[in-house]
From TrEMBL:
Record carries keyword Ribonucleoprotein: no
PROSITE patterns reported in the protein's UniProt record: DNAJ_2
Protein name in UniProt: DnaJ like chaperone protein
Organism: Kordia periserrulae
Keyword Phosphoprotein attributed: no
Cross-referenced PANTHER family: CO-CHAPERONE PROTEIN DJLA
CDD domains: DnaJ, terB_like_DjlA
Residue ranges crossing the lipid bilayer per the database entry: 12-32
J domain residues: 207-269
Ranges of compositional bias, category Low complexity: 68-79
Keywords: Membrane, Transmembrane, Transmembrane helix
Chain spans, region Disordered: 41-79
Pfam families reported for this sequence: DnaJ (PF00226), TerB (PF05099)
Length: 270
């Protein structure tokens, strides 16, 4: 469990307090209880002469800064804060239809392995299993905390990931989609951005137009203008502050914008 404890210390920043902090506290307790029940936590023998080294201050303590404005707080979002927020929202969405499928859990695990490596993913999944056991996580309060501290580009990436979770088991329930739409509202993501990301996963007939946030009646010049705007909005460099792993994760959104534009080029002949 030492690896888990050190991961927690490094992962929590502004997520330590508020509703996310409360959910994480419950999840840590659940993970520790599970490890104890399996005999994974052993007390050190009383006659041990090994000297304990002083425990370093947690990483999140060193990252604390004076109170700032909302805009300044959002620019301080770190990879660990995004990671924990992603785990909490994933647990909320996966439980929306009353059943958590193994394929959905595998999606979360595979995503974390791809993003962070196996060791970090294993630690994250211990926390995630604890979150799945907590029944009273307030979606609104969690999202309000995220919205207050997280920049818009990172919130869009969270929404993109949540749609991926709902598609993981091949069965998308109305409860899940409705909850993600509520989450988008709580995160201050407007309807055009929401519909754009949703169209990347559900492919309606007019998906290319929805992804570019335009109507079918758009002129060629309006399509070109929309493409430049969306390419800028979804450019992976927008997530540089979260770390290289998230830049790679954002490439999927960017590629879908490019494909949508290429599809309209072919259809409209320009």
């Amino acid at each position: 469990m030492s690896g888990f404890a050190s991961w927690i210390g490094g992962a929590l920043g502004w997520t330590l307090g508020g509703p996310i902090g409360a959910a994480i506290g419950f999840a840590i307790g659940a993970a520790v209880d599970k490890a104890t029940s399996k005999g994974l936590l052993l007390d050190e023998p009383k006659d041990s002469k090994r000297r304990r080294r002083p425990r370093p201050e947690p990483t999140y303590e060193r990252r604390r800064r004076p109170r700032t404005t909302t805009t300044e707080k959002q620019s301080q979002t770190q990879s660990g804060d995004f990671e924990v927020s992603l785990l909490v929202l994933s647990a909320i969405v996966m439980k929306a239809d009353g059943e958590v499928s193994q394929s959905e859990k595998n999606y979360v695990r595979d995503y974390f392995v791809k993003m962070y490596g196996k060791e970090r993913a294993n630690n994250a999944f211990k926390l995630f299993n604890g979150l799945l056991q907590k029944e009273d996580i307030s979606t609104r309060q969690v999202c309000q905390q995220i919205q207050m501290h997280m920049d818009h580009s990172s919130r869009l990436q969270l929404l993109h990931y949540l749609f991926g979770v709902t598609k993981a088991d091949g069965i998308v329930s109305e409860e899940e989609v409705e909850l993600i739409e509520k989450i988008a509202g709580y995160l201050y993501i407007n309807d055009r951005d929401y519909q754009s990301i949703k169209a990347m996963f559900y492919n309606p007939i007019d998906s290319a137009y929805r992804i570019l946030e335009i109507d079918k009646s758009a002129t060629i010049n309006e399509i070109k203008k929309a493409y430049r705007k969306m390419a800028k909005k979804y450019h992976p460099d927008k997530l540089q502050h979260l770390g290289e792993e998230h830049v790679k994760g954002a490439e999927e959104k960017f590629q879908r914008v490019q494909k949508a534009y290429e599809q309209l080029q072919e259809e409209r002949g320009f």
